Amino acid sequence: KVIDSTVEPVCSCLKHKIVMDKELDWSHLSFGYIPTDCNVRCCFRDGKWGDIEVSQSETIDLHIAATCLHYGQEIFEGLKAFRGKDGKIRVFRLEENARRIIESAKGIMMEPVPVELFTEMVKKVVKLNERFVPPYGSGASLYIRPLEIGISAQVGVKPAKEYMFIILVTPVGPYFKEGFKPTNICVMREFDRVAPKGTGRWKVGGNYAASLEAGEKAHSLGYSAVLYLDPKEKKYIDECGPANFFAIKDGKYITPASESILPSITNKSLMQLARDMGIEVEARHIPIEELAEIEEAAACGTAAVASPVAEIDDLDTGIKYVVSKDGQPGPVTTALYNRLRAIQLGEEPDVHGWNTIID
Ligand code: PLP
Ligand code: COI
Asked: Ligand 2 pocket, 146 CB below 6 A?
């Protein structure tokens, strides 16, 4: 026995055996996909959600005319489970994610997954894959990826009548390979990931397809992410690749208010922690020029946590906004990051009731 196992492995296929027989290098995991024991699924048919199915298969059987394949009826979520100092498993902000996927579903006319079903399925899939929750102190976590797709066969452009909701889990390390070290990001105006009144406020797969070209270009130039401007006027900061953006200016936490960004649950949590620490919070339009006056900046999200920014390069104007003069994360970003992690790991009291403990 190499991996601590409290749950009997339910899968016997060879691929899984390899993972089981070899110790995972928990503290060097990247943000990638590693097979686990099972996923959970539930289908909406004949006007109701069916039974929860536990599956050991990593594939799905899909009709070739399913709406998710043709008209992009796909939404997803991302949340994490952590092994705490006390050995307990905590899922961070489960209910907020359940509520957000309902908004995403309504946004592209899909069937909303009830909060209770979402909650039951998250608990079940984490419990069944308990041995894949990285150990306390490794810096890694179990990433939980719920997704919903339209599955009924349809050729006309209209919403499906049938839906499949799946939750898979996979152990992950940091999203940016640098971890909690400042990286450079860039502004470019040749691509928008969403439209002004489009789908940016929902977690819709198509938004990510629209971001791929810009993201690849940024990576090829050595940047960790694109800092998008508002798609209407290209005047204000929107968000940072698959994460929200915040900055510290005159000691205040400032973050964009925009209808074309995803309401990040991490950002919401950091804003609360900032207020708890006596830091003023402003959610408002942030003109790009204001980047010249900030003391700290970071990309924040479930995957990114709070990834500090060193420099923001505007590729169109040639202006370079140097945020971290010494290449180190700033003090406020560091304090917020530490506070958030401490709550997630059960090192500090969960005063806001953000964690769901998996028994
Ligand atoms: N913005 C985008 C586009 C994202 O994909 C994510 C990731 O979920 C976020 C922001 C951060 O949101 P959260 O903190 O809820 O993970
Ligand atoms: C997350 O932060 O959970 C995300 O969804 C970001 C990305 C991996 C899509």
From this structure: no
Q: Which helix (H) or strand (E) holds 80?
A: strand 79-83
In the residue annotation, 203 being an active-site residue is answered as yes
State the distance from the centre of ligand 2 to the C-alpha of 143, rounded, in angstroms: 9
Token pair 């969960």 is found at: 350
Q: Supply the pLDDT for residue 16.
A: 54
Question: 273 and 339 in contact (C-beta within 8 Å)?
Answer: yes
Q: State the closest ligand 1 atom to the C-alpha of 200, by its place in the atom list counted from 1.
A: 3
- Residue pLDDT, tens place only, 172-209: 998 888 889 999 999 999 999 999 999 999 999 999 99
Q: How far, in Å, CA of 207 to CA of 200, rounded? A: 7
Token pair recorded at residue 28: 């060097």
CA dist 236 to 96, 122, 147, 231, 285, Å? Answer: 27, 36, 31, 9, 6
Cα–Cα distance measured from residue 98 to residue 95, given in angstroms and rounded to the nearest whole number = 5
Report residue 294's pLDDT band, with 50, 70 and 90 as the boundaries.
very high
* 308 in Cβ contact with 180 (< 8 Å): yes
pLDDT in tens, 114-147: 999 999 999 999 999 999 999 999 999 999 999 9
- Average pLDDT of 233-245? 97
Q: What is the DSSP letter of 45?
A: E
Catalytic choice (17, 127, 161, 203)? 203
